[in-house]
Amino acid sequence: MPWPPASLVTAATPTELPIRQIPGSYGLPLVGPMWDRLDYFWFQKPEKFFRKRMEKYKSSVFRTNVPPSFPFFGNVNPNVIAVLDVKSFSHLFDTDLVDKKDVLVGDFVPSVAFTGNIRVAVYQDITDPQHSKIKEYIMDILKRSSGIWVSELVRNLDIMWEKIEASMSKSSSVSYLFTLQQFLFSFFSKVLAGADPSSDPKMEESGYAMIDRWLALQLLPTVSIGILQPLEEILLHSFAYPFFLVSEDYKNLYNFIKQQGKETINRGEIGFGLSEEEAIHNLLFVLGFNAFGGFSIFLPSLIEAIGSNGALQEQLKKEAREKGGTRLSLESVKEMELIQSMVYETLRMNPPVPLQYGRARKDFRLSSHECAFEVKKGELLCGFQKLVMRDSLIFDDPEQFKPDRFTNEKGAHLLNYLFWSNGPQTGTPTVSNKQCAGKDLVTLTAALFLAHLFRRYDSINADASSFTSLQKPTFT
Ligand code: HEM
């Protein structure tokens, strides 16, 4: 029988489980949310924040507050029900039970000014007719671009590695984050919008930095960037920053996509009934927030996971060079079992989008592995994937990074419980669900990144932000 058995994780058995009142409390008005906020950002940090409460309540489901809160977020309700095991978290994928309108980053919703005064599809629920039109449009873009995906990836990666090598010839330690982001911006502009930053010097030079600033202003109230406390609490987590601070950046990005992405925008208008504005702002959001933002977090964690592990690098190199033929392709990389497993394990240990939310559409009974709980219509569920993906009933040695965890038959079965994309890795993104439209291309692209790396270099030494060595093959 495959492990874990389906009965352990299907939400279909709540009536057989003992019913328990959801433990935890929201505390006194203002004080409770403020205290939780300080724990979350300062005294504990997110992982410890959720772990401590899970231990305290002896439950993977409990009530707590998540930021932002007090003083200048009066319209944000910080109360959530945390769901921290694989079974309770899975309710977030059930579109009958949860509404995904305006909950991308919790109850806090960045101003629509950041997206051209349009509420883009990623913030829409599946019941919104615009959601299916736009998701279909994005999935069509991905399908059409699959023909150039690998050649553009390899071309842009070669440019990136040459830049990093040039810096390494001058210094023993090279920070790679901005070069990586320049690569991501060029690659995704081309494959998603058909736009080419190399024909626009301003975009080529600093398009990535414009997106960074635009992203930062939207997300600052909800993330920690590790500057000295209490400065971070006072300056970054107490109020939302206004759009006008990045309006010039957004205008530049908008004009770039409008001018260079004409064909893609046209298809959105003619093929999917979108207005020009809807097509451009949604395209820009998927490019900047989902693709660029997601990979800016994911690739450094992938590099870090292999960065100083010589034995693992040897195995990955062997597979990258022996399998998949002479040319990398979306098909050939599928033969690289260890490389793919490595990608999945990195997503399990470090899911790039760690928090997912969903609002109860109706009263319903939610189950964890041990108990069932009554959830009321309108309550907000909050899953912190970093803990969910360490559910010991599903994953052996859950705290251990095991590069080959997802190999062979057992590993393939475990993909049912890998949730980084807001759905299982074995699931399919459709217009009727909220699973990441880029799900399959994201993992294949990361696998191609690794395969390309180990075809180019014998070994590397790196962490999440810099390289200290890139060893090219020596031919005698
Ligand atoms: C490492 C990269 C990526 C990660 C970690 C990631 C993760 C996610 C997650 C967690 C969601 C669900 C958010 C929620 O509703 O709670 C999502 C949604 C989405 N993602 Fe991705 N994503 C990545 C890259 C991409 C790429 C490359 C594309 C497409 C080009 C893409 C397109 C989308 C779209 C359109 C949605 C909204 C789906 C819907 O509204 O139904 N993502 N992504």
Automatic annotation (TrEMBL):
Its cofactor is heme. GO terms for biological process: fatty acid metabolic process; sterol metabolic process. Heme binds at residue 436. Gene3D superfamilies: Cytochrome P450. Keywords: Heme, Iron, Lyase, Metal-binding. One of its GO terms (molecular function) is oxidoreductase activity, acting on paired donors, with incorporation or reduction of molecular oxygen. Pfam families: p450 (PF00067). Belongs to the cytochrome P450 family. This is Uncharacterized protein. It comes from Psophocarpus tetragonolobus (Winged bean). The lineage of its organism: Eukaryota, Viridiplantae, Streptophyta, Embryophyta, Tracheophyta.
